[in-house]
């Protein structure tokens, strides 16, 4: 067991409404992740790639004109995912900077005999 939720499967004969519904669910999950990350929260994207793969596989079984109808929404999802990726990179960089600041302050505190400062909570604001 990998600890990841099972990937949702769309039957080969999935109609466009089911595909659109799953796509909308993914768009909402990405938007929720962006909000949580911006608020200092922790996000879990486990299974998102499987959900997107299921949509792509289902669209391959549809007529090209039907699949093309979702192209604008799929391209918007790509942009949202790119934005989420950039936000994750920024949080990772900010966390690294803050941890280095705490380590520097702790080294100084230890040199002067003060009690070290605890690290900031994960995902919290950096104080700037």
Automatic annotation (TrEMBL):
<feature type="compositionally biased region" description="Pro residues">
    <location>
        <begin position="118"/>
        <end position="128"/>
    </location>
</feature>
<feature type="region of interest" description="Disordered">
    <location>
        <begin position="108"/>
        <end position="128"/>
    </location>
</feature>
<protein>
    <recommendedName>
        <fullName>Flagellar protein FliT</fullName>
    </recommendedName>
</protein>
